[in-house]
Structure formats: structure tokens, C-alpha cells
Amino acid sequence: MALLELKSISKHFGAIQALNSVSFSIAPGEVVGLMGDNGAGKSTLVKIISGIYHPSSGELRYEDKAISIPNPGAARALGIETVHQDLALANNLTATANIFLGRELKHKFGPLRLLRHNAMRARANELFNELKSETRADDLVKDMSGGQRQAVAIARTRLADAKLILMDEPTAAISVRQVAEVLGLIHRLRDAGIAVMLISHRMPDVFTACDRVVVMRRGSKVADKPIADSSPEEVTALITGAKEAA
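Structure for Sugar ABC transporter ATP-binding protein, as requested:
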């Protein structure tokens, strides 16, 4: 059974058609690569799934139920989390403080609320151990590599018990070693039964990490096929329009 299913999703902004009847699904524990040139409709599609935009027409189904996602809070309540390209981390805070930002654990003593620092630190380290990351709870974000920062952002989604994680260009502007670390994190999310949608321009990353690739061009889906049945050359041709569809 699909975790999330999009049926004939369209989106227009006035006279501009950003998405044209896009349909596809993603199953629990599946990693799907979403590829396309700038302006292909990838960002609009992700914003609809994450509750930032509302579709002009079409249907969203989640765990086999028709749903509406009116805002990002509603998406998070469903278990849909987004790791944005800028990661939205506070550089001057520790990994623990970033993971629990806005969701701090507290002791209640009458009108007093005291932060449970030890419990939060222990939980943060548990999450990093699950992800097999070298990041530690007391590490400051400003001192971290790009791969470690991704681990903090992903740990934050695990705290929220995510079922689907949308990852926007997670390997942009980081080193080769850090790319390998991030792709390893994606594999471990899949092994935990969490669906991942990887939005990326990096062909090697998609063909290493994903089970399936969805290709967008000019607001339409032009391909949706298993990675094993495609190639970087074919996807490049689809993105550029040298090949119409697959």
C-alpha cells in the first residue's frame, strides 16, 4: 500500500501553470528521487506535499485516505517532515538544542518549568547512534561538517516520528566524504521503514540512494521508473527534452 499518493495534481498561479496533472506514489521504506531542471515544478510539488501550497485540482491520499494538507503543521502531524536545503539550524547552539528547539522536554514543579537537559542529551545521542553518525549531542553546529549538520536535521525529524521525509538538495556544496555520509543516512532511514523523497540535481546521488526516479519537465511528469530500469543518460535526456517521455 502506498504511504502517499498524488492523483492528477495541478497547480496554477494566475495564468502560469506550475504543475499539470502530476500523479505518483511513494511507499513506506521507499526512496524516490525527484529530478528536473529549474522551473520543472519540483519545488511546487514539494510545497504541496509539505502544506505550503494548496493544489488547484487533484487529490492527495495518505495511508489510503483522501486528505487535505492546509499548512506545514498539518503535514508534520501526519508524519511528513521536510529537511530544507539551508537546514534551518542555529549555529550557536548544540546538536541537542537544535533537535529539541521548540519541543524541549521539561520538568513541572507547580508553576515552574525546568528543562530536562540530561534526558534531551541522552535522546539526541540515541538518535545519532541509530543513524550511525559521528555527531554527538554536545557538539556545536558551527563546528560541524556538512554531513554532520544533515545528521542533526534528520535527527530532528526522527524525534517527530516521521513517516515521510522530503530532502531538498541534501548533498549540495559538501565534500565527497560528506556526500557518502548523507547517502548512508538516507539508507538507514529506508532500513527503518521511513519513506524518503530526495530532490536533487546530482545524478550519482540519485542512482546510488534511490529505488525509483521521477523526472519533471515544464510542470509535467515525464518519467517514473525503477532506477534499475533507467540510466543517467536517459534521465539527462528526459530533463533536457532530448527524450520526450519514458
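The chain is about 35% helix and 30% strand.
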